[in-house]
Amino acid sequence: MFYVENDKTIQAKMVYTMPSPGKMIIEHTEVSEELKGQNVGFLLVKAAVEFAREQNIKIIPLCPFANSVFKRKPEFVDVLTK
């Protein structure tokens, strides 16, 4: 899970699974009301993209929000699985 924490409380998270080596499935992204509208969801997806690049992992964005980010950001396409 990639997450944002404040005072030991998770305020935003992006949950993923690794069904096989080199493959990440983004399953769910959730942002608290306090952080909505602050690009936090996008930053979680961006962190996953950076992690995937560093670890040579391909991503399957099943989460509707994450999928929408990939559609708007062609510079992230290199980490998508084909």
* Count of runs of 4 or more consecutive helical residues: 2
Structural class: alpha+beta
Uncertain regions spanning at least 5 consecutive residues: none
The SSE order reads EEEHEH
Give a quick account of the main beta sheet: strands, pairing sense, barrel closure.
4 strands, mixed
Helix content: 25-40%
> Which descriptor suits the 3D outline?
globular
Numbering strands along the chain, what is their spatial order in the largest sheet?
1-2-3-4
Q: Tell me the number of strands.
A: 4
How far apart are the first and last residues' alpha carbons, in Å? 23 Å
Q: Could you tell me the mean pLDDT?
A: 96
Strand content: 35-45%
Kindly provide the radius of gyration, computed on alpha-carbon positions and rounded to a whole number of angstroms: 12 Å
List keywords for this structure.
single chain; 82 residues; alpha+beta; four-stranded mixed beta sheet; 2 helices; 37% strand
Protein described:
Helix content is 30%, strand content 37%. The protein has 82 residues and is of the alpha+beta class. It has a 4-stranded mixed beta sheet. It starts with a strand and ends in a 10-residue tail after the last helix. 23% of the residues are buried.
Explain the layout of strands and helices.
Elements: E1 2-6, E2 9-20, E3 23-31, H1 40-55, E4 58-61, H2 64-72
Parallel strand pairs: 3-4
Antiparallel strand pairs: 1-2, 2-3
Provide a short characterization of the protein structure.
With 82 residues, this protein is α+β, with helices and mostly antiparallel strands.
